[in-house]
Specification:
This protein is 20% helix and 32% strand. With 164 residues, the chain is an alpha+beta fold. It has a domain of 95 residues: Sandwich (Immunoglobulin-like), CATH 2.60.40.790. The strands form two sheets. A five-stranded antiparallel beta sheet has the order 1-9-10-5-4, with no helix packed on it. A five-stranded mixed beta sheet has the order 2-6-7-8-3. Helix 1 packs across helix 2.
Amino acid sequence: MANVPMTQKDSIVDQVEQWHRRIANRAYDLFLGRNGWGDAIGDWLSAEQELVRKPAVELREHDGTFTVAAALPGIDAKDISVEITPQDVVIKAETEHKHTDNKGQVHRCEFTSGKVFRSLAFPKPVDTAKAKAEYQNGMLNITVPIAAEAGAKRVDVKVAQTAA
């Protein structure tokens, strides 16, 4: 089992917006390639599929801890990065697949190279300082405790005495 380093961040908004812009630009290029005719939603989905892969994930809560399981088959632990905020987690990786002539002629290949990006919001704030990420057999498992909630406290109101 390999430990995956985690980076604490204040926000993931910039990263999500950056991917949104990349996908939007590619979708627009696909649209222009057909002289403005076609399906804008289809262009968006094609651009998204072309640029980034979103792994399947499961988010589970048990005994005050969130566990995120993400399927990342064929990726080395060293190529995975996890960034966490009190509200979100971002999983990133890069995959590469190459063919060599010395291993024979390829007749069909469904392996791809590209980027993996997945952001996931936690339903409750988490304690990022205690987060852990481990990778084994193509599965990334992130565990992070739910942050202690600041409880409501009753404050007595005292009447200020005025000087006479």
